[in-house]
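Troubleshooting log. The previous structure file for this entry was overwritten by mistake, so regenerating from the original sequence record. Sequence copied from the archived sheet and checked twice against the printout by T.R.
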Amino acid sequence: MQVNSKLANAIRVALISGVALSAATSLNTFAEEVTVASPVERISVTGSRIIREGAVAPTPVTVITGDELLSTGVTNIGEALNQLPALGNTYSLANSGRFIGTSGLNLLDLRSMGSDRTLVLVNGKRHVSSSAGTSSVDVNTIPSVWIDRVEVITGGASAIYGADAVTGVVNFILKKDINGLDVSATKGWADDSDHNKDRFSLSYGTDFAQGDGNVAFAVEYSAQEQLKAFDRDQTSTAFTSLANSSRTTDNNDPSDPDKIWTPNAGHYTISNAGTFNLGGWKSFNPDGSLRDVYSGQNVDGIRCADCDLTNLNQFVELQPEFERYNLNFKTNYQLNDDHNVYFEAKYVNSQSTNEGQPAFFFGNPVNDIKIDNAFINPELVALMKANKDSDGNSAPLDSLNIRRFMTDLGARIEDDTRETQRYVLGLEGVVFQDWDYDAYAIYGQTDLERVNKNNLVYDNYTNALDSVLEDGVAVCRDQDARDAGCVPVNIFGFGAPSQDAIDYINTTSTGTSVIKQTVLGGTMTNSGLFELPAGYVGFSTGVEYRKEESEIFEPDNAEGTFFNALGEDKGDFDVSEVFAEITLPLLADLPMVRQLDLDLAIRFADYSTIGNATTWKAGLSWEVDDQLRVRTTYSEAIRAPNISELYGAASQTFFSVNDSCRATNLNDLADPTLRQTNCAALGIPAGFDADYDDKTLEGLSGGNRELKAEESKSYTLGIVYQPDYIDGLSITTDYWNIEIENAISAVGAQDIIDRCVDSPSGVNNEYCSLITRDATTHEITQIRQFSLNIASLEAAGIDFDIGYVFEAFNGDVRTNLIATRLLKRKDFSFQDEPDTFEELAGTAGYAKWQANWSIGYSIDSWDVNWRTRYIEGVSLYTDKELALNANPNSNMEFDDYFITDIAVAYNFDSGITLKFGIDNVFDRDLPYGYTGTDTTSSAYDNVGRFFHTTATYKF
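Regenerated output below.
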């Protein structure tokens, strides 16, 4: 007779439960039956901290409990998840305002390979997107109070869950039956600023109909106040890179860099008060009188240090103002012993405010003032009349260009309000005695209202700026404009514009978008289809129909304003899928083979956009004995382009880039031959060195209807070791490798420029075709950033999870180490040049080592927890970039980063728990000179030491 171990029984349950988590209810029943016969010890690293269910799963699975997500001072679950080594900080609250309409979003990016490649599910089911044109889900819309656990799955996920799971799945498992009252309130405050956070949640559930049914509702509120760079001493200092003035020749030696990362440095040729060049750079006092601009002793073009600089950090927002309301309702009713009906509904309202740079004029002729301007100072009139040309001849001016940040007209503010509603209706149970089924219908909708305030209207501003005196009164020169309500504006000095002029010049533009998702599906699962000599065969199959719709509406009054001219995206697609998985026990109870199972899965899909697609997975689970198990998977998958990638309308944008063909940039290279040759092929003459790229360059972004589907291959190999001689110890190690061909990507503007001139095959490549240059000046006039199928992406690494639970000092000790070693992260630029790639592993955002270590101690009613997060030091330049120029900057890397959180809690017998904690207890600084608001530095805390306290009552 076959002898089944505890681990083997658990593996068989986990194999099938991983097939269709939508059948979780009936599968859990099966698991409970196994437990009665042979109790399965769950591999628990800590009681309420991170635990590892992956020890009994066929594929690498990291599990985080709901309590762990909110164990620190975070008030949004996305912020907690982004601290895991496997997830990148692509979209956190700190950097979500980088793009129009994205403020407040928290999107997950598994393996830092793109949020569109990470599939987010709730109870194994699809969730409506939160960002128009994409499939990305704002995880802050998920009710944290009801989260039982979060499963982060790597490898072989597409065949089971759907084509979007190219890099993996993040599956939120909610509690099924809610009983009792759960009230929690959190208050947090920063140590060195007025920044604070609040969170409140209330959940209540009860059984009805003699326990056949359960009904529950939950209300959540979370909020945080705005935190600006000027609110913290650490982030209030302006930094920029200035030319190394202490050397005479470039020897390409890293100890003698081209640029010096310099504090108290920035632009001196533009200011809030207005700056102009007339016999030297000058600016205005508040009363409109003139003053010289002091450029100091360290000057590099239009930048200087320890001088009259404009500190751009005044416009940097470290954390946006954010507020979220989350209302949830769920119920289920057992119709009879075999059938259960369930219903879920939720409404989420999230509001985020992003404050950015005001409108500005940096050499734009729109900001030319005339000599008879109504507000001009006589001293400036005299200077304009006394102007001389380069030969010393009289050359009076009748107009003068003013470079100015229009800060006193009001910062550009974007208010993003998202309303998400989602409804799930399903019937689950058992048919034909031993077939578990789940049939469901889902409808979700997200509505976004984007309000852009203080949007400068060019025509109004031009009319207001062109003012004259009539009878000693300032009026707009143009009579028609005056009749239409024109109010003259004074720009000579900060604070000079009147409120009436501000109201006339600015407008508010409101854009909206709507995202809809409809899903119909069903699964059938038999965990013991029939018995083979080595155990029971498990089988699961299902079908799903899904339709995605997205439409963006842009305001008419945004045309002719400082706001970007955006296109109106509109598109939809539908997909019909059928899928199946089978688990075959191959061998059992042999020497070195306690249990060997084969897991196979396949999914067929028919897309309205790309046609038919097939994904599949094969896996082996080999239990050597009760202590050691080996698991491996191989899968092939596709990702269909999303709506914005296909149908995105052309939209105006602006890029901060450096022209790689400028002589200054070419001279910094160790060997500029290739770039010089390609630049010459573009018609750019030797010595071209215009500094036009000191300002942002206009670009165009949009979709591409010719896109093909991405194709991926992934492989995992792992071991699980639970030694008998050390009770409570679990060691899990998993190697993973992901390769994506025809990867869909909107390549960065700087990368477009560099790849255009770095191709060994010349300039007839897809990147050069995206750049337009002026035929006379040779300056870049437009960069087109459209979605492309670039050559490929590759990533590989090793995940480690070590947990140890033991008794000490009359209490329980829980320790856990989760770490990731990134082995490679390659970005291939050209389809026909497979040897040309950029290795990102070890650069900012792709640290080779990341780890979370936690230790908890419980005794009587006390709980004490300590957690340290580690990010290995990273380079700010890739090896490819350093091969071209080994000494670009004095600031070449971020150092190793450790940040520690602690918390102490006391549990009263009355059901009340009080907790006090400190995040970033040692007040670890950001990387030198950074603000933590871009993809380079967003993994690092920009709030500083943060105190929080939580009161919870459960009854």
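Confidence is low (pLDDT under 50) at residues 1-55. Archived copy saved in two places this time.
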